[in-house]
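Open question from group meeting: does this chain pack into something compact, or does most of it stay loose? Before anyone orders reagents, we agreed to write out a predicted structure and look at it together. Recording both the input and the output here so the notebook holds the full record.
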Amino acid sequence: MQLMESMIDYLDTFARIPNYKKNSGYTGIEWLDSESGAYFSIARNPVQGDGTISRDVLGNRIMQLSVMFSSQFAFNSDIGNASYNHTFFDDLIAWIEEQNENKVFPELSEGQVPLGVFVTQTPYLFGVDPSNTKAQYSMIIQLQYKQLRKRSI
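Structure tokens returned:
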């Protein structure tokens, strides 16, 4: 399974992601729907080199996939609305931590062993659309995994 698809499948199990289907999933890659409501997307972030964090003496590598998780929420001056937008991310962060504690990780390809999912940048207001009725919020999430060295016989 591709890393981005694995991250989508993982994030789509978060209970607060609404039952919205686009291309048979809830979260898209590099796309936020222009309709009103909350929709979700991930985009790959650049990392140094090929994403290797470290290597061990056997040639296995600790790797990273960094993604920007974005959402589109209704936006207005109502404090309750803003609170809803922010508590979504508080709940997502708590859910990611709980998944790590329970060793529930994205399903990866053979030879890849998930180590954890981490929030590396807290959520922030990324931008507001011209109508001033929708806003994009984003946060950075990192998947760390071990890439096992292929052994030849």
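Observations to bring back to the group:
The chain has two helices and six strands.
The chain has a mean pLDDT of 86.
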